[in-house]
């Protein structure tokens, strides 16, 4: 949703009035967060019945962040289901990334847009609840790493519907893709 500055001001003021009246049919916290973080696409997603066909296309970076969060959800879920032997294998074969298989987040300084998108999705919209309450600031740029991983993950995704999940081999393959190409 593209909003002009006057429209943003009006929505922020109306949100305050709405809260003071004790009304709760609209998520004013999300409205404020979307406006302040310039992630107004979240309003299109959350209020699709209100916006209707006037919704703006989802920005490409939002789609990427959703894909990366989805991929890491599968990675963490799979790793948590492995026995000790499988975890040791992942740790050894996917070193140095196989020891703590946990979504590191996005760099708050150099990947601020991706970082704020993830915060809105997780904290404000309640999506990817596995990551709620975590510090999603990796303090290191990782978008290119996630892109490499996702290129490996995307063909696997179709087979992950229903029971089952990523195998230790697939987790190792994805974590190895996190390495920069020049590091082997």
What does this protein structure show overall?
The chain is an all-alpha fold and 184 residues long. It folds into 2 domains: 5-54, no CATH class; 60-183, yfbu gene product, domain 2 (Orthogonal Bundle). The protein has 9 helices and no strands. Helix 1 (5-20) runs antiparallel to helix 2 (28-36), helix 5 (60-81) packs across helix 8 and helix 6 (84-93) packs parallel to helix 9.
Gross CATH architecture of the largest domain: Orthogonal Bundle
Total domain modules: 2
**Count of DSSP H/I helices:** 9
- Compressed to H and E, one letter per element, the order equals HHHHHHHHH
Distance between the termini: 42 Å
Helix content: 55-70%
Specify the CATH class of the largest domain. Mainly Alpha
Average of the residue pLDDT scores = 91
């Amino acid at each position: 949703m593209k909003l002009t500055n006057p429209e943003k001001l009006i929505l922020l003021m109306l949100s305050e009035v709405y809260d003071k009246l004790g009304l709760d049919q609209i998520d004013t916290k999300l409205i404020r967060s979307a406006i302040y973080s310039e992630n107004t696409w979240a309003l299109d997603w959350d209020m699709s019945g209100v916006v209707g066909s006037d919704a703006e296309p989802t920005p490409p970076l939002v789609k990427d962040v959703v894909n990366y969060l989805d991929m890491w959800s599968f990675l963490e879920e799979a790793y948590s289901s492995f026995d000790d032997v499988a975890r040791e294998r992942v740790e050894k074969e996917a070193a140095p990334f196989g020891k703590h298989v946990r979504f590191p987040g996005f760099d708050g300084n150099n990947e601020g847009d991706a970082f704020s998108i993830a915060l809105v999705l997780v904290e404000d919209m309640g999506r990817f609840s596995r990551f709620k309450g975590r510090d999603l600031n990796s303090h290191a740029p990782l978008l290119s790493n996630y892109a490499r991983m996702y290129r490996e993950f995307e063909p696997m995704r179709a087979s992950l519907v229903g029971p089952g999940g990523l195998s230790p081999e697939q987790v190792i393959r994805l974590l190895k893709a996190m390495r920069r190409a020049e590091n082997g």
